Amino acid sequence: MSVWKLVKLNFGRNPAHFGEVGIGMEKTSDRVRSDALFSAWVSVYARLFGKNAVEELLQIFPSKEQPKLTPPFRISSTFIYRQVSDRTIYYLPRPLKFPINYPDDDLAFFKTYKKLNYLPLEIWQRWYQTEGFQESDREELIAQTTGKKAAGTFDYKKAFKINKVPKVAVDRVTRATNFYHTAFVQFEWEKNPAGLYFLIQLSPEGEKLVDKLKAALYLLGEEGLGGERSSGAGRFQVKWLELPETWQKVVDFSAGNHHALMSLFWDTPITTDFLNQASYDIQERGGWIAENQLRRKMVRMFSEGSVFLVPPQGKLVDVTPNGFNKYRIYRSGISLSLPIKAQDK
Fold it and tell me: Are 328 and 318 in contact (CB under 8 A)?
């Protein structure tokens, strides 16, 4: 029997820089994906509890060598939350299949619908676990398409701003200077405070690790998540919460016919049967080993919002560069998904 928790990361006035493959310093993501969160968390865990402790932790996750293991915990990617009056709006990735009752004649609003990468929990649950797509949703999307109104469904980007900060790099040898910009995401912290949250699903074995996991996450909050940490970016405060009632209904939903990813997902082998009726996007994941300036091996993963007939499981993937023998480096392809009702087409 697994236990779910909801973890909120409050950045307050602290900006953050979240890099992605294919974008430079002049751009930033508005959130952190599950593999990057896992890597940062485990890195701090190793510093707190030692090399042996982190090796013992990684050995109980499924991998190519030990595919049958049950992971002690699964985490989603981080997503935006926004406080509006006395309620919290949680945004989830829109599944890559149409909800039940979605109309065939959607030309009047299809482009607007496709731009809805994230949905408020209330709408996500209604579309994909209860009533499905409604006539009122159609009218709202058409109104947005024609510019008549901006409904709450489209308030996602009000939770943050992206700012570019000018910087100067000085060559240590020649003293030559190079001018560039670094992008930072600044979450709203005054009128309608916003931040990031993620879900964690703990197995009975994982529940025994909760105190250590919390300690490592609190330290990560003090040090910062993402890039530009030496400038104070990425620092956050942690709230480790029991799953709210609405969320409990979402994770306990039993009438689904598909499963939607809330994290990145990697596995091997991937069979044609597994991909039957699937709808998915692929995300390349790479990056650097900070202290050595070596590139980790690139790996391709299924991205959040991808939909499959059966719950994806996932494994850790070894991304250690060739010739690097100090220790092994892993990315997490361990998936976390939610059950949904969706059209088969």
Answer: yes
